[in-house]
Design goal:
2 copies of one chain form a homodimer. The first copy, chain A, is mostly helical. The first copy, chain A, has 6 helices and 2 strands. Chain A is elongated, with a radius of gyration of 25 Å. At the A-B interface, helix 3, helix 4, helix 5 and helix 6 of A face helix 3, helix 4, helix 5 and helix 6 of B. The structure holds a DNA duplex.
DNA sequence: CTGGACCCTGGAGTATACTCCAAGGTCAAG
DNA sequence: CTTGACCTTGGAGTATACTCCAGGGTCCAG
């Protein structure tokens, strides 16, 4: 059994974050000392690692709360967890597609700008941003 | 000259958003009616389009405020805008890389789960999330 | 027994980009 | 003149994941 500072050191998150996770129902101290200090054990550390790794996979704390609940349920099965992982992957791929669209839009803008020394009045990038269709190429006069 | 509702209809953003943009120094009405109504012109519409397209490229409102400033400056040149576009593209590519890492981590988890019907106690995904190294494959016993 | 390191609670603040609301004034049609 | 659509301001609320703070208690070494 160790206090919050030890768990923080062990897991690499701050005391404040641990208390915040408790407030968010992600973790509960294994026990409390007579003085009211939070006391944790190895399972607490595993739980925090779980949270950190799930975050690194893109899960939000709300989703992680669910995963942790599944983890504790006897009747839950591996498939429940797998389903969530697959769903999250789809969400992430979706986001990646959105960002690639941004990246492409920026490419067009950057290409459009042939001459860096032109004054802004004639800036192709600015003109393109004012136009309706971002991906349309510039018209030659 | 038209009122806020017309500009909203013309540009596809809400009245509230237009007022919010004003508060954020992104746009100012061209004029005010005697009753204090905001009045806008074609340049206002161009400005809002500019904002929307810049957002679609991933720029934040704070960054767009800067772009709009450049747009109004005589001494600014096309290169200033281009630099910002290139910078933003790098940021976005960075984010895409981070998300691809998440996607890959999820792939490992999904792969690890060979049998969906297993109880959570033996769930490989949950075990992997508790482990330190997410990308490490499961050890055979 | 004192100093410093640690812990507690409750609440406020951060960033981003809106969105909604109340209470009230304005305008044009019928 | 009334009705309904429109406009005004100012302020609060949303989501996410923390972070920081004040004011106070606890614990242990020297």
């Amino acid at each position: 059994m160790f206090t919050i500072g030890k768990l923080a050191g062990l897991t690499g998150v701050s005391n404040d974050t641990l208390r915040y996770y408790e407030q968010e129902d992600l973790i509960r101290p294994a026990d409390k000392s007579p003085a009211g200090y939070r006391l944790y054990d190895q399972e607490s550390a595993r739980r925090i690692h779980f949270i950190k790794h799930a975050q690194a996979c893109g899960f939000t704390l709300a989703e992680i709360r669910e995963l942790l609940m599944l983890r504790g349920l006897d009747q839950a099965c591996c498939g429940d967890v797998r389903t969530r992982a697959i769903e999250k992957k789809l969400q992430i791929e979706q986001k990646i597609r959105a960002m690639r669209a941004m990246s492409r839009a920026l490419d067009h803008l950057i290409e459009d700008c042939a001459d860096e020394t032109k004054p802004v009045k004639e800036c192709a990038i600015i003109a393109a941003l004012e136009r309706a269709n971002l991906s349309a190429p510039i018209q030659s006069p």
